[in-house]
Amino acid sequence: MTTLTLSRALNEGLRKALEANPKALIMGEDVGKLGGVFRVTDGLQKDFGEARVIDTPLAESGIIGTAIGLALRGYRPICEIQFDGFIFPAFDQIVSQLAKMRYRSRGSVKLPVTIRVPFGGGIGAVEHHSESPEALFAHTPGLRVVACGDPADAYAMIQQAARSDDPVLFFEPKRRYWDKAEVDIDGGLAAALPMDTARVLADGTDVTLLCYGPMVRTCAEAAVAAASDGRSIEVIDLRSLAPLDTETIFASVRKTGRCVVVHEAVVAGGLGSEIAAQVTQECFYNLEAPVLRVGAYTTPYPPSRLEEYYLPDLDRVLDAVDRSFSY
Amino acid sequence: MAVKDAGRAARPDKRATADRAPAREPERRADSAELIQLLTPEGERVEHPDYPLEVSAAEVKALYRDLVIVRRIDFEAIALQRQGELGIWASLLGQEAAQVGSGRALGPRDMAFPTYREHGVAWCRGLDPVKLLELFRGVSHGGWDPTEHNFHLYTIVIGSQTLHATGYAMGVQRDGAVGEDGEAVIAYFGDGATSQGDVNEAFIWASVNNAPVVFFCQNNQWAISEPLERQSRTPLFLRAKGFGFPGVRVDGNDVLACLAVTRKAMQAAREGQGPTLIEAFTYRMGAHTTTDDPTRYRLSAELESWKLKDPIERVKQYLIRTQQAEMSFFDEVEAEAAAVGSRVRAACQQMPDPEPLTMFDYVMTSETAQLAAERDGFAAYLDSFAGEDAVTAQEAR
Question: Which chain B residues touch A51 with a CB distance below 8 Å?
Fold first, then answer.
């Protein structure tokens, strides 16, 4: 086991992906010499060359559009969108082309394109650098959408994404890039949990707390805090947002009878809304309380001096847990 | 011989009003641009120093056959739409030479990325026209395998495919397939698409990567109802210079010139000389699609003037003038085109609707549990009507 930051774990995972398949490519803005603004691709261009780690022109639609072309030629591009808020120039290529081309071709083509997106707030950034657009992609058939929450998952899941024959939106919790944990970089991927399954982080009996990405640590801390109040919280890292691992979700809620979904994204129309609807439908007779959602208000992301009020934190999560016991 | 295009004289901007600053005099597009032409509208063969072309009688006759057949397919498709057999059709009428000339310039290993109007290119690549009708009938979104004829799927969002073509060309480079015996890629798009960000991004990507891709713009003068003046203040082919690669304007109604110009650009790309922008100066003689009404936005006189430059008639005149074809040849081609038309018509009329459950197919490489559950639920729902159908059928008797 090696102690790695989440950023470094991604770097090691990407290195493994490039080693594993000569058709794998990395492309994006500043991913080469600079190693990415978060250093996730640090040193890869030096070791794999400019033909495989490509510094692209500064145009996101171009990154995804040309990645599609490269995939049609047999390559497996791993694209970096530098920040969440810059994905929208590429939205058309992702939603209208990447997600639909396999369907359009009735299975003749496959598009193994991974799109890495640092997402979420909490780093004191200017506008457009703190967003959580994952629901827009989870709503789009034809895409797999995942989010890693810790270094070990970052390391394994980026390799699984790179191996996927379907397009993958890979969301990275940018404020957790410097969190450290033990990662087994010598072991193979065989033991890793499949990318489309959720992980039960902490067993509990009173309430199910569903989270992903940057909220995984927040919710794990909430479970510890709640335990001192005598509440047993089951924390589940969803990991896959499309498809959802509903089997794991439903099993937990049937056991606990309460469910709180936590994400940084706006609550209205977010992943939590879909999960709440599905849990209500499938676990109706097990529920002691309505499914509650914790997330952002229906405002654009505020100036960073306000973000501590805007982002869900330990207290907001515990407040929702308390409310779920008030029914 | 280099000739000047006199087809569209520059005109002052009549739209300048008080609330809109008078625009600069548009560059005199028609007079400033050299139009590469090898066959005049009258069917006279002319030479161009940069584009020597040796074509045998058999080759010209083959091109003529292509032109007539693709026009016939287009004609049948319009009729099928009028009869309710197709939902919509995007006619290529008037653009046959641009498509056949460029399409026949491609080698078997070259890859083409079309819009939704490249029926003539599809024909040259060997794709069964019935596959095109599937799309416009609503039976599929295309559904052909792009690798079978090296002809990518039709792309409906304007300009998106230029980036796909450029990325594909970057793949060709990485495969080491650039060189004398190399491969190249051609991206088709129209004048309207030149306003899209994706097309401009594709120009940049192709340029800085020196990618083996040819950008073939059919300037048919109209983006649905908007004339070229609403897209560009500079001749389209000149834009290439700003991106750092050559641009040429070819008479898009001259199949020989389109063939020669595309061949040269594709060979340059194959050999590692990077991209070329070809502006094929042509005219959309029909409506944008069968749902469009061009009489609302353009004068019939304009169409009449372009009819004099018809892409097919000039080849026929050339073949007759030079006695390279007997009259019986033209009758044979007509008969063959009619046969293709009949076959396409019959195939369209007999095309069954897809089975409802096929809408769940091919979303991803492996089906998610959610989708499987939705498919099963929908199948059960459909089955719940099985009895009712029997009752309805009984009542009908």
Answer: 173-174
Residue B297 annotated in active site: yes
What domain range includes position B387? 358-396
For residues B379 and B266, membership in a common domain is answered with: no
Same domain, A314 and A206: yes
Please check whether residue A194 touches B, CB under 8 A. Answer: no
What is the arithmetic mean of pLDDT over B352-360?
97
The verdict on a CB contact (< 8 Å) between B160 and A96 is yes
B128 and B273 in a single domain? The answer is yes
> Which residues on A lie below 8 Å from B368 (Cβ)?
196, 243
Q: What is the pLDDT of residue A265?
A: 98
pLDDT tens readout for residues B263-291: 999 999 999 999 999 999 999 999 999 99
Cα–Cα distance for residue pair A315/A294, rounded to 1 Å? 11
Section B43-47 average pLDDT:
97
B286 and B376 co-located in one domain: no
Which residues are within 8 A (CB) of A79 and not within 5 positions of it... i.e. 6 or more apart?
A26, A27, A28, A63, A64, A67, A113, A114, A115, A116
Q: Are residues B170 and B263 in the same domain?
A: yes
**Summary mean pLDDT of chain A:** 97
pLDDT tens-digit map of B98-130:
999 999 999 999 999 999 999 999 999 999 999
Interface test with B, best of A25, A54, A66, A113 (most B CBs within 10 A): A66
| Test the B interface: residue of A50, A72, A102, A246 with most B CBs within 10 Å | A72
Whether residues B239 and B296 fall in one domain: yes
Rounded Cα distance between A298 and A265, Å, is: 9
| CATH at residue B345 | 3.40.50.970
Residue of B125, B284, B314, B345 with catalytic role: B284
Q: What is the pLDDT of residue A188?
A: 82
Cβ distance A102 to B364 less than 8 Å, yes or no, reads yes
Residues of A within 8 A of B202 (CB-CB) are 62, 65-66
Low-confidence winner among A80-89, A197-206, A285-294, B385-394 (lowest mean pLDDT) = B385-394
Helical H runs in chain A? 6-20, 44-48, 60-72, 91-92, 101-104, 134-138, 151-163, 215-228, 246-256, 271-282, 307-310, 314-324
A9 with A150, same domain: the answer is yes
Report yes or no on A120 lying in a domain.
yes
